[in-house]
């Protein structure tokens, strides 16, 4: 029969064993991939959700104030609808890709930290890790382009907003506000024969006060920020996958050397 002191000692050993097991498990968590996955999901969700709604608001503004003839902006409407379908595809792809990269992070982290004593790297595993490194680099470059492209509507809406702010400013001391116009045809959004194609004076002020303009402008800003967050997430993925692939490759060479 065990004494109370022996029982307390056994309990302390059990607690120490559980604590060491938890520390060992936490050591196998790919924190870099986990942070990148959360940031990637958040960025893609913001970009896709806000971008989709902002594109719909942009079509409404153009149809109501700048291009009242449907045939003048028919191509632009088709392009926007195509972009919205592409947004659906981007959201689905990055949801799956983020989960796969997180799983690959767990795999490589376990190999690097050697949580399993009999863990051996294989040629197939190294090839898969190398493929993810290459694909992540390609996606990172592509999202840099997406980030730059998402800044274009922010720039256009900012120009319109700053023009409206200048008209309302008492410092401007404008005598004829009707001479201040915003012509969206110069940006190539709609053709030059679109009517009216531009908004001037009080009409421009009314556009800036609409809920569609206010909502679309801020949603484009959030979508641009989401694209930037996705770029940062892919950069973290690049560093994590490249490091893990290099260590796996070095470990495979070490295994080959120990065989002889």
TrEMBL record:
Ranges that cross the membrane: 34-62, 82-107, 128-158, 219-243
GO cellular component terms? myelin sheath; plasma membrane
For this protein, the record's Pfam families field holds: Myelin_PLP
Major place of localization? membrane
Keyword Ubl conjugation attributed: no
Q: Which GO terms describe its molecular function?
A: structural constituent of myelin sheath
The UniProt entry lists membrane topology as: Multi-pass membrane protein
Listed A to Z, the keywords are:
Membrane, Transmembrane, Transmembrane helix
Q: Does the keyword Transmembrane helix apply?
A: yes
Q: What is the annotated localization of this protein?
A: Membrane
Q: Which domain of life is it from?
A: Eukaryota
One of the GO biological process terms: axon development
Do you know which SMART domains this protein is assigned to? PLP (SM00002)
Q: Which family does it belong to?
A: Belongs to the myelin proteolipid protein family.
Q: What is this protein called?
A: Glycoprotein M6B
């Amino acid at each position: 029969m065990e004494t109370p002191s022996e029982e307390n000692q056994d309990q302390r050993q059990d607690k120490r064993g559980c604590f060491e097991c938890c520390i060992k498990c936490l050591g196998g968590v790919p924190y870099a991939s986990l942070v990148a996955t959360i940031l990637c999901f958040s960025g893609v969700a913001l970009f896709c959700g806000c971008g989709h709604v902002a594109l719909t608001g942009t079509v409404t503004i153009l149809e109501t104030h700048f291009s009242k003839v449907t045939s003048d902006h028919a191509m632009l409407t088709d392009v926007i609808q195509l972009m919205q379908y592409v947004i659906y595809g981007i959201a689905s792809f990055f949801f799956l890709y983020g989960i796969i990269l997180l799983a690959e992070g767990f795999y490589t982290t376990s190999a690097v930290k050697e949580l399993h004593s009999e863990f051996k790297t294989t040629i197939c595993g190294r090839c898969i890790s190398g493929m993810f490194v290459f694909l992540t680099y390609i996606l990172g470059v592509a999202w840099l382009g997406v980030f730059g492209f998402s800044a274009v509507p922010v720039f256009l809406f900012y120009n319109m907003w700053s023009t409206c702010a200048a008209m309302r400013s008492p410092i401007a001391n404008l005598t004829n506000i009707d001479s201040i116009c915003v012509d969206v045809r110069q940006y190539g959004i709609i053709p030059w024969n679109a009517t009216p194609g531009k908004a001037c004076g009080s009409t421009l002020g009314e556009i800036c006060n609409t809920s569609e303009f206010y909502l679309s402008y801020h949603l484009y800003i959030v979508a641009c920020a989401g694209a930037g967050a996705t770029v940062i997430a892919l950069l973290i993925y690049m560093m994590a996958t490249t490091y893990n692939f290099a260590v796996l490759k070095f470990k495979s060479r070490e295994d080959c050397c120990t065989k002889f």
